[in-house]
Amino acid sequence: MKHSKLVEETILYVKKEQQFTLLVLTNLQKIDHEKIFLDYNCQSLFAFCTDILKYNDSEASVRVNAMRLLGQNLGVSEKIESGQLTLSSAAMIQRFFVAEEKENNEQLTSQKKTQIIEEMQGKSARATQEALNAKRSNPRPKTYNLVVNEETYTKIEHISHEMGTKDQSKILNKLCDEHDEVSSLKEELLCCQQLLAKARTELSKKVPANPPAGGEPMPVQAVPEAKSRFIPTEVKRAVLLRAGGQCEHRSHVNGDRCKMKNSLEFEHCKPYSIDGSNDVENIKLLCRGHNIREAIKVFGAQKISPYLHKKT
Fold first, then answer.
1. Structural domains of the chain ordered from first start
2. CA within 20 to 30 Å of 206's CA: 79, 126, 134, 191, which one?
């Protein structure tokens, strides 16, 4: 009995630990929803967990995945707080859901997810992993052998460092997304060139081929320039030169500048939608993440959220 007080205190501390764990996950949800991690020049929530919160890679991965599961409103928060579901098990379940949906190209129903969560209650991390492996539709992942030169390998390592992951599928998806963005920009440029050619043709029709007698040219009615979201090439060139090909965002926390040099986008300081101009002074160069963060600050996370899941 002499150790009963020690045991009782330990049980109490474990209970508090579970409650604080839930609070951490809840706060991570808010930080992720509003992309607040970008204010600290972290390109992902995972990087925020490792660089700012000082979790190691494994701890950060567990908490990010558990947070994702928590956000699906499947009653997970109560199970974590009560100790019925461990943090590790919650992370494993979330990774399982993602893998299954990707493998089958079909969303799991809330009923199916809830059933799986109920089955994992009270299991150890090892038992949870074994049970989930038994449920996998196709436990063998698809593989693809890729041979690259030294230059490409260096780029892949750079992207891996920026994303904070060694997951080859995620890195390859990132490369594909950047290729799609370049293709999209080329299509946009071609469209602009076609519109410019059409405008020149229409304007030439308004100018007479031969001036009237007397030598005085016929005045041509000025065609007002329509306000366009399209940023002129000379403005983009000036902004790129000013920015040195690097994201111009500076953290309000420590003043450090974002180091991203890829996935860069031109953005209006005063948004175009509220009468922002295309002048050099009103255009800045931002990475994709900080562009989204600025939009959330102006328009709110709820309004911007639908655009975050669109494929570019």
1. 4-135 (no CATH), 143-206 (no CATH), 227-312 (1.10.30)
2. 191
